[in-house]
UniProtKB/TrEMBL annotation:
Family named by the database record: Belongs to the DHNA family.
The keyword Zinc-finger appears for this protein: no
Pfam families in the record: cpYpsA, FolB
UniProt cross-references to SUPFAM superfamilies, sorted A to Z: Tetrahydrobiopterin biosynthesis enzymes-like (SSF55620)
InterPro entries per the UniProt record, alphabetical: cpYpsA (IPR024755), Dihydroneopterin_aldolase (IPR006156), FolB_dom (IPR006157), GTP-CH-I_C/QueF (IPR043133)
Organism: Candidatus Methylacidiphilum infernorum
Protein name: dihydroneopterin aldolase
UniProt keywords, alphabetically: Folate biosynthesis, Lyase
EC number: 4.1.2.25
């Protein structure tokens, strides 16, 4: 189930989670303060973290909670304070699943397994105490993850999980958690393009106008970063989208708007910030019909050449 571990890179629980992910070959990431700050100095470059525009620990805490499916807070003491308490509060405010596990909690591993499966968590944010506050938290967190998650990394192990009803919850939850939070949308309405398209040779001989509308899904963190920096390089350039679509549409004649729609989707999904998109292609083929439209929705990770006709 777990395909990525996220943390802020602080000493203690944060570093334990990242090191565990690296050791297990699991993707890792997350947000860290500007300048890669931690109590031990600059966070080592081996940790693939992105800097927030602020040096505030609170900002990176909030962003990691928001960008994950759920948060695991690990401490030695049963009482949450400071940054760990803030993490829990952010999870509550964002409506995100959150579990606090401490050294004295009975059946810790089972509680973590139940938490992961029942919430269908794929991207797990791990936070907790820093090493200077609770000496030994690194070792405790690392062992806890190793005992709680390792078997669940194999897909077939899910169906051997002893809790009743979780298979159904997982199947329902995976679709709901395709985006750990609802994506933001860049909408382009009624882009008019001239292209040669039509089922007959006569239609393809002369250029005609079609209209395209695009909903391009991007992560909320992309929009937040652009808001903080006010820099076009940190978001999706819709002028570039317009150029790519126009160039592709005019590149060759086509018989079907289905072909054009799939080619546009495949091209735009190559852009690193695009999570998915919805395309509406509208054609005006008949005098007595206002228009004919095709709407498709595609997501990253599904190359068009892997979609085979039934």
């Amino acid at each position: 189930m777990i395909r990525k571990i996220v943390s802020g890179g602080q000493t203690g629980a944060d570093r334990a989670a990242l090191d565990w992910a690296i050791a297990k070959g699991i993707a890792h990431g997350g947000w860290c303060p500007k300048g890669r700050l931690s109590e031990a100095g600059v966070i080592p470059s081996k940790y693939q973290l992105c800097e927030t525009p602020s040096s505030s620990y609170t900002t990176r805490t909030a962003w990691n909670v928001w960008d994950s499916d759920g948060t695991l807070i690990v401490t030695l003491d049963p009482t949450l304070t400071e940054g760990s308490l803030a993490t829990q509060k952010f999870a509550e405010n964002f409506g995100k699943p959150c579990l606090h596990v401490h050294e004295k909690l009975p059946e810790k591993e089972l509680k973590i397994k139940d938490f992961l499966f029942s919430n269908a968590i794929e991207i797990l944010n791990v936070g907790g105490s820093r090493e200077s506050k609770e000496k030994g938290i690194y070792e405790f967190c690392y062992r806890l993850l190793d005992r709680s998650i390792e078997k669940e990394m194999l897909p077939e192990s899910f169906f051997q999980y002893p809790y009743h009803g979780l298979v159904k919850a997982f199947k329902q939850g995976r679709r709901e958690n395709r985006f750990s939070s609802s994506p933001d949308v860049i909408h382009i309405e009624d882009l008019t393009i001239e292209t040669c398209i039509g089922a007959t040779e006569e239609e393809r001989r002369n250029k005609q106008q079609i209209r395209l509308s695009l909903d391009i899904y991007v992560a909320p963190s992309t929009i937040r970063k652009a808001w903080m920096t006010d820099n076009l390089a940190d978001t999706l350039d819709y002028a570039l989208i317009k150029e790519k679509v126009e160039a592709l549409a005019s590149s060759k004649p086509r018989k079907l708007i289905e072909t054009l729609a799939e080619e546009i989707a495949e091209e735009l999904l190559k852009l690193p910030l695009v999570l998915g998109l919805k395309i509406r292609v509208t054609k005006f083929p008949f005098p007595n019909v206002g228009s004919v439209s095709l709407i498709i929705e595609r997501f990253e990770g599904t190359p068009m050449n892997q979609i085979k006709p039934s």
